[in-house]
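Q: Here's a chain of 162 amino acids. Please give me its 3D structure as tokens.
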Amino acid sequence: MANLNWGYNTNTETKPVPAADDFDQENKKAFICEGVVINGNIESDCDLVLDGRVTGNVKCRDLVIGDSGVIEGDITAVNLTLAKSITGNVTVEERLVIKDNTSLIGDIIAGSVVCEGTVKGNIKCSDLLELRGTCNVKGNCTSERFIIEDGAVVNGKLITRK
């Protein structure tokens, strides 16, 4: 008689589940997929990749807002990459990247900013503000250092501070 295996796991050896402390705490990521809608605030100590919709404030370590991501609320993060339009004020401890064909309506406070898209609000940087040739800023820009490419448009004041 033939021994048939119908896809059941016949291995009865058990392995312990790692404790929460054993996981790599530095590389934790959360994903909010396209089609997911959250009405309320998000606060996390991990990185967040957002392709869904959030109506509320977001506070996390590193945040990437993808092509289909939408936030209507304020953002606080260590680093932020924005590939989709948002409405709200942004506070970024280190680096903010605003991709081409993206708009941000709100004020920005950041360590450094690379702007390729549109900003309707004031930008305050403690280090470097880089305005790429595709950017359009309607507001005042304050930074210790500036890099402004040919084609960049600023409707406001450029203020250098130490």
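Q: Can you summarize the key feature?
A: The radius of gyration is 22 Å.
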